[in-house]
Amino acid sequence: MFSKKTVVIIGVFFLIIANILILSVISQRYPTSGPGGFTISLLAPFQEAIAGSSRFLRGIWHHYFNLILVSEENDQLRNQLARADEMKNEWVEARLANDRLRRLMDLGGGFSQALVYAEVIGRDPTAWFKTVIINKGHQDTVAVGMPVVVPEGIVGQVVSVSGHYAKVLLIVDQNSAVDALVQRTRARGVIKGEFADQCRLEFVLRKEDVQVGDTVISSGLDNVFPKGLRIGEIKDVTSDATEMFYTISVGPYVDFEKLEEVLVVVSPKEIIPGDDK
Question: Would you say domain 115-265 falls under CATH 2.40.10.340?
């Protein structure tokens, strides 16, 4: 019925009570000297041992409860710290999202066309196509052929649409093409996608002045992308005497691995106001 620990504790308790009663009776019946004193001298060491054991057990008991209280307090503090970290992370994410939204709004102020704000919710899992999925579709006035932009520059073009979703072909896809200009010299070419999120500027004649570091923008002549949108920076220019055109590598300004929010230009055929020099 009782555990060994319970039996030992009960036995020690009754033994202490019995010793106290015996000592009390002897103290009343006998003086401190004589037989009573002799009896006490015999019982005292035993009682001292019992008292020491009792103090030891009480110390262990109190220490055990103190450990429990400290452990519970530590758990509470850890939970509070975890919640504080979570709240801090939520605040940081909210601030970053607010900064991105403000930049998109600033970009939208430069357009005369209607714009649709959208979030990137998926990516093409294959290595053959560079596309993303956004959470706006034809129910939100998004249609095939509309350009997609961010403050850094051109993202791509809408290639398929459903009710509330759309697929965007990125300019780094090999099937993408953007009529472009070298901003400094107005040399014209076509931006095509390559592997590793890079582009190349094709059909630029070798007679043109093209240098590493030049900015490439959209020309507006393809009737898809408004004129003056940034595309990227020239990273390498190779000239072959046997070829009519340069071989030009362009690094896009947009970091396609970090796309989260974009703007869809609803009326792409109008020309946007801006610096196209």
Answer: yes
